């Protein structure tokens, strides 16, 4: 089935979003008092921001939050009882960038491998996503090299591409129920389609900062100068920030919590493979113990293993880790070095 | 699978606790609500593990130490070494725990031709091997010749000591024991794992199963290779930190593999191809 194409004016888009917020929680880019844009639940549709590079937080917050319960349990003398979670309400994320949309697609595949991760898919299956394509590249991001933007060809529910005075809308044929939710749509005209393809062509002409296949080959065949790893390990502060804000990083730890009111939950909490204890066994043995080994593991996992398993890069080029690193490690520059 | 929801354990009751050594206990557990659709029989194969919960303390991966033919219960050999295992040791008969699984792959897959089987265990690495040894002992026609090599730190650290001694007496398997530091019982060597291999000259058609501390496995592999065991016939069970057991939490990631779902059993050949140093 082919992707369905329409257009909508901005005025109608706002009206549509107002319609949707009546029955569902809508999460969209909102600007806070510090002039930062974050994906947050919308109260006032008129406050939704369209002119942003990318949001500080990423969609992982709504599917694999920093901390979430897996179930609650009771201990009564000798016996124990577990209680599954309550149901999940449907929600909408509006204005996700293509790179983050691709990141969610990767998480979908990851959480499906071998066993389907029920806490993730409870939320994922209750969510409809509106991707907002980029008309330009921003500082620090490199979706063209990671093959995840600035306009997606597939892998979205609904994609909006800003064109002159309106939005071009594409709907994934497998999410046609979305079509029923959408009102105020106009048929896509030939001139609209041409505008989109011209924009796509223009964006494709930008030089990519590295060639993904070269990075893959050099990492896979261990053709990376050891100095690269030494350099990264020397500046990396092992704070795990780049991993927490990465839209594709999904490692977690599991722990039992007892609250002041004596209610008890097992929770999972995001974890980072840059923490020294990440691989350490209870007996003290640690198979991955140096910063260099930990750094290498991250690059190898995202840029080799995930490509091998899912056919797409584990880095989507959103650039969040580049602009926020306290040790100025610069993931992008390192990948460029690896590609050399 | 014992549990129906991925992360929600099934409740099991501790039926019996046996103290094996000063830091290791064997727990026999049975499931609480046995439904016809959740029978225990042959639900796992030797080498697999379960995620065991002490509610309030957390969850840890533990290899199943009983045989799949032991119907109606599971046995878990737990060494008091970390937070959850310490809490586990405080539990009594009648207390309830949670179990998810069985997870991971298993020792026996497509080695139908072999007649000679060797087990090399170190410390608490004997637990998963015990499951396999018990399983193989029940079918002597398929598994005719078994040799068990086991090393512990001292004579007080020997796991399943009575069973090993009984097995040696019974002549159904050859059993060689060693302790790192003396004194030792008669018939038990003093020395590191390599001392156990001294009496062999050629093991070329043997299938060897290993589980133990990484240093012990490293030296045992060298011995086996010297005795002409093929790298694909050296089968190891790896220990890794795991939080989920189902390939999601990322802790056990090893080169291109997740030890919990792609392992914990690997052949030495597989590991070498992956570039894992052992």
Write the layout of secondary structure elements.
The complex is a heterodimer of chains A (340) and B (278).
Chain A: E1 4-9, H1 10-23, E2 25-31, E3 37-41, E4 67-76, E5 79-83, E6 91-96, H2 98-112, H3 118-124, E7 127-132, H4 143-146, E8 158-163, E9 166-171, H5 177-181, E10 186-187, H6 190-204, H7 212-220, H8 226-235, H9 241-244, E11 252-258, E12 264-270, H10 291-310, H11 320-324, H12 331-339
Parallel strand pairs in A: 2-6, 6-7, 7-8
Antiparallel strand pairs in A: 1-9, 1-10, 2-3, 4-5, 4-12, 8-9, 11-12
Chain B: E1 10-19, E2 24-31, E3 49-54, E4 58-63, E5 74-79, H1 83-89, E6 96-103, E7 116-122, H2 126-137, E8 145-152, H3 161-170, E9 174-179, E10 188-190, E11 206-211, H4 214-226, E12 234-237, E13 253-254, E14 257-258, H5 259-262, E15 265-267, H6 268-274
Parallel strand pairs in B: 7-8, 7-11, 8-9, 9-10, 11-12
Antiparallel strand pairs in B: 1-2, 1-6, 2-5, 3-4, 3-6, 12-15, 13-14
Tell me about this structure.
The complex is a heterodimer of chains A (340) and B (278). With 340 residues, chain A is of the alpha+beta class. Chain A has 12 helices and 12 strands. Chain A has an 8-stranded mixed sheet with strand order 3-2-6-7-8-9-1-10. Chain A has a 4-stranded antiparallel sheet with strand order 5-4-12-11, with no helix packed on it. In chain A, strand 8 and strand 9 form a beta hairpin. Chain B has 278 residues and is α/β, with parallel strands linked by helices. In chain B, 19% of the residues lie in helices and 31% in strands. In chain B, the strands form 3 sheets. In chain B, strands 10-9-8-7-11-12-15 form a 7-stranded mixed sheet, sandwiched between helices. In chain B, helix 2 links the parallel strand 7 and strand 8. Chains A and B meet through strand 4, strand 5, strand 11, strand 12 and helix 10 of A and strand 4, helix 1, strand 6 and strand 13 of B.
